[in-house]
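Let's sit down with a protein and look at its sequence and fold side by side. Please make up or recall a protein chain and show it to me in full. Label the sequence line and the structure token line clearly, so we can match residues to local backbone shapes. Go ahead whenever you are ready, and we will take it from there.
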Amino acid sequence: MSNHHEVTSPSHFQQLLSSDLNRVSVLNFWAEWAEPCKQMNAVTVELANKYPSVLFLQIEAEVQSDISESFDIESVPSLILLRGHTLLQRISGADAPALTTAVAKFASSPSINPLSRTDLPPVKASNAVIEVADPSEDLESRMTRLMNQSKVVLFMKGSPDAPRCGFSRRMTGLLRDQKVDFTHFDILSDEGVRQGLKKRNDWPTFPQLIINGEFVGGLDIVQEMVENGEFVETLAG
């Protein structure tokens, strides 16, 4: 159908989103491995049939990571409602009634009070970090201790057995495939550590991998290191 699309790239996303800046759009961030996404994928198809004036975009969160990061997607399913580039509402989880209500509301309402507004299209998260409120030596000491609690430390969303995002799940799987013993820290449990590590390591997203107390990188960098053999050398160091 003409108002329901699978996004294939950031440029494809911006092309679809910018074609009509007065149009309401529903961004459905999903993942193949997440069972609740199947329900919401079906719901968006039904709603697309019911509301032909609304644009529905299916975005596979892990494949289109640049788009996911620009909207700070931490779990799937997550749904974002926009009018042009104006944020209308965020819906987390498989909440079909909330999505149905929101689409009905905004599809029939030409004038709304947005949660936020920008004249620019969403872009990939930059290396800019959110400053930690009232930074102190205590926080620095805590981060140092956490980064040195074992040879390999993974700062992730959730736990290895219950990851809270696909990127953390993939990093955990990669480390296990490499037979690496590691400890972890759930950054969703401590906002100070979460924001502090972004600044300390000059890296805006998670997971973050630490080896011998030093920041190594995020998922893409660690994957590349595994492929070129550098990861084994780093572990041996």
Q: What stands out?
A: The chain is about 40% helix and 20% strand. Residues 116-121, 123-135 have pLDDT under 50 and may be disordered. The longest strand covers residues 24-30. The longest helix spans residues 35-50.
